[in-house]
Amino acid sequence: MSIAREGTPEGELSALLTAVSGLRDQVADSTLPLTLPGADAAARTRVELLNQLDDYVLPRLRSLDAPLLAVVGGSTGAGKSTLVNSIVGSVVTRPGVLRPTTRSPVLVHHPNDARWFVGDRVLPGLGRVTGGDAFAADGDTSAVRLVSAATLPAGLALLDAPDIDSVVSSNRDLAAQLLSAADLWLFVTTAARYADAVPWALLRQASERGTSIAVVLDRVPPEAVAEIRDHLASMLKEQGLSLAPIFTVREVPLETGGLVGAEEIGPLKQWLTALAQDARARGMVVRHTLSGALDSIDSRIEQLAEATAEQTSATRALSKVADTAYASAAAGVQKGMNDGTLLRGEVLARWQEFVGTGEFFKQVESTVSRLRDRMVAMVKGQPAPAAELGEALHSGVAALITAEAASAASTTVRSWRGMPGGPLLLAQYPHLVSSSPDFDQQVQHLVREWQGDVLELVRSEGQDRRTTAKVAAYGVNGVGVVLMLVAFAHTGGLMGAEVGIAGGTAVLGQKLLEAIFGDQAVRSLAAKARASLHDRVYELFGAEAGRYQAAVESVEVARDQGRRLTAAALGVKAAR
Ligand SMILES: Nc1nc2c(ncn2[C@@H]2O[C@H](COP(=O)(O)OP(=O)(O)OP(=O)(O)O)[C@@H](O)[C@H]2O)c(=O)[nH]1
Ligand SMILES: [Mg+2]
Asked: Which one of 16, 75, 180, 192 has the minimum C-beta count within 10 Å?
C-alpha cells in the first residue's frame, strides 16, 4: 500500500487527502434514521469512522511529520496517570485513589512541539486548555489540557486518557475517541485486570484497524512477573498482536511525588525516547497506524452501505403498504358503486317513496311503460322525494368512501406495527392511526361536487332543444338523481327479494332516462357519472395515502447515499 512507503510523493499524498476528505463528507452526510436491527451497530460504526477520520487520518495525512501521539489508555486505576507523570518526571496529570480519577484528557508535549497541538489539528471536536495545574478542577470532558514539558523528548506527545472501562459512559466514549486518534496506543493493564473483557474488545478492534500498540503490564507483584507476562504474551498472540512490545513495571512503593522509580520506568522511557529521536522508526509507527486505519475503511463503509440498503428497503416496504391499502380502498369504492351495494337500505326506501308505493313494484314487470309514465309524473311533480333520494344517495356514497378510507388507514397502521421502522413512524406521527381529521368534511364536499358533476352531465347532454325541453320538464335535479341511481344499478351484489326491487329500480330508471336521452346516451352518461366519482375518490385517497408517504419520506435516506459512500471508499482506494 502506497501510504506505508516512505517518501510518498506530494501529489499522491494530496490526491489521497482529497479522497479521504471526500469520504469524510459522505460519511458525515449519511443518515440511518430508522431503528432497524443492526442499525445501532452501523450508527456506531459511522460515528467511530467519522471520529477517526477527523481525529486521526486527516490530521495525520495533512502533516505526516507532526510529533507521534502516544495515547495512554487502559483499565480504571491501572496506573496510567502515574505512568505519564513518571515518564515526564513530574506530576502533570492527577493520579488518585478514587475512581475514575482522570476525566479530562491531558496531553503532554515538548515545548518545541506546542504548535502541533494548540490548534485543532488533532481532535478538532475537543477544546484546548493550557496552564492550570494537575490538581485543578478536573472534569471538563470537552477539552484537552495541554502541558508543555521539556523533560519529554521532542517528536513524541503523551496523552493521558480516562479509563476505557469507566462506569461513566461519557468517560468511556471519550477514551475510545482518544484511542482512535493515537499513532500509538500505550495499553496499560495490571496483574489483576489484564484478562478483563473490555480492554480486549478494544485491543481486538485496534488490531483489526492496524493501530500500533505497546503494552505496559503495570503494578505486577515482583514474584509473579514471569508467569503473568507469559500469559499476557500468549493472549496478545491470539489476537494477532504478537508484535506489540510488552513493558513490565513491578509494583514497588512509589517515590516521593507518587512517581514510579527510575529503575521500573526506565525501559519504557528509553524505548519512547529512542522512538522520538528516530524519525524513521517514528515514521514506521505512524504509517503502520495510518495504513491500518485506511485499510479498515472498506469494511466499515460496506457496513454503512448495507445498513443504508436496509433503510431503503424498509421505507419502500412501508410506503408500499400504504399505497396498496389505499388502492384497494379505491377499488372497494368502485366495487360498491358497481355491485348494487349503494341501492340498499335507505336509498331503496327513498326510491320507493320517490316512485310510489310497494304496489307500484308489483306491476313493474308487466307494465313497464305505463308505470314509466307514472314515474315520470312523479319525478316531475314531487321535488321533495327527489331531494330525499338525492340525500340518501349522498349519505350512501359518503359512508362507502369513509368506510373504505378508514379500513385503508387501519390496514396500513396494523401492518406498520409489525414492520421494521413502522412503530417508530407511528410514534412520531400519532395522527396516522386514522383518516385525516377533516376527512368527513372532505368526503361531504367530494360527494356534493360529484352530484354537481352529474347535474352538469344532465344539462350538457340535453343539447338539442327537444332533449332540453324534456329535461326541463322533469327537472334537472330529478333526472340527475335518477342518473346517479342508474349509475349504481348493477344487480351483482344483491340478494333475494332485493334483486327484483333493485332490478326494477334499474329498469325503471333506465326507461325514464332512455325516454329523455335515447338508449345510447344513457349508457355513456352512467359510465361518465361513475368515472367522475371514481376520479374524485382516487384523488382523495391519493392525498390520504400521501400522509403516510410524507411520514416515510421524513425518515428516508438520500436516494444515492449507499452508492456515494461506496464510490467515496473506492476513491480512497484508487488514491492509495
Ligand atoms: N505502589 C504503587 N502504586 C501505584 C502505581 N501506579 C499507580 N499507583 C496508585 O494507584 C492509584 C491509581 O493510579 P492512577 O495513576 O491514578 O491510575 P489511572 O489509571 O490513571 O486511573 P484512572 O485515571 O482513574 O483510570 C493511585 O493511588 C496511584 O498512586 C505503582 O506502580 N505502584
Ligand atoms: Mg488517570
From this structure: 192
